[in-house]
Amino acid sequence: MINNAGLEITSLITDIDPADAKKMLDVNILGTVLGLKHGMRAMRPGGPAEGGGTIINVASVAATIAFPAISVYSATKSAIDRLTRVAAMESGKLGYGVRVNCIFPGLVPNAMGAGLANDVAELGLFESPEAAVAAVVDLTPSGRLGEEKDMTDALMFLASDESRFINGAALQVDGGMGM
Q1: Residue 141 counted as domain residue
Q2: Which residues lie closer than 8 Å to 120 by C-beta, 6 or more apart?
Q3: Structural domain of residue 91, as residue ranges?
Q4: Which residues are CB-contacts of 7 (< 8 A; sequence separation ≥ 6)?
Q5: Is residue 47 in some structural domain?
Q6: Average pLDDT, the chain
Q7: Looking at the 3D structure of the chain, how many domains does it have?
């Protein structure tokens, strides 16, 4: 199961709207919790998909870096790492046979990434959206943004038998940005 709950609302800390913060908490944390709950119930012994399985939570490189204007988003994605580790431990201790891991995707030039670049430029943190993207690339040892295929390849690996002894781990798929 790929557990990919994500909403990012850009804001300076001094301007955070409590309603926006609550939306991100509800989607990013509570959404992930509910995915874990129902995935583990389905995969554990006696569940409809009995016989174990794997759950892969999607966090973000934002959980590992200090990038301006995404404090609440970063905090929610940091929580995904803890949820992953606790769920893996509970599954093991209870004999569920469910591996639980997460990935930390880097910035991808999709609608969410473009929205962030536009937002931080509008806030005056960067001269332009292009300058914001360039700053991200400068922070990335691989020297480029991520591609959706980079993320799906990592997900496919964690879902495969090749990762059968990887459990409770966080895989950075960010070109080295969060190291």
Answers
A1: yes
A2: 10, 68, 69, 126, 129, 132
A3: 2-173
A4: 23, 24, 27, 28, 73
A5: yes
A6: 96
A7: 1
Q: What is the pLDDT of residues 78-93, one digit of tens each?
A: 999 999 999 999 999 9
Distance CA 7, CA 110 (A): 14
What is the C-alpha separation between 5 and 119, in angstroms, rounded? 21
Q: Determine, yes or no, domain membership for 178.
A: no
Catalytic, 73? Answer yes
The verdict on residue 179 lying in a domain is: no
Beta strands across the sheet bearing 98-105: 2-3, 53-58, 98-105, 170-173
Is residue 149 packed enough to be buried (19+ CB in 10 Å), middle (13-18) or exposed (0-12)?
A: exposed
Q: Are 58 and 103 in contact (CB under 8 A)?
A: yes
Coil, strand, or helix at residue 15? helix
CA distance 100 to 82: 11
Catalytic residue among 29, 60, 73, 96: 73
pTM of the model: 0.95
- How many residues comprise the chain? 179
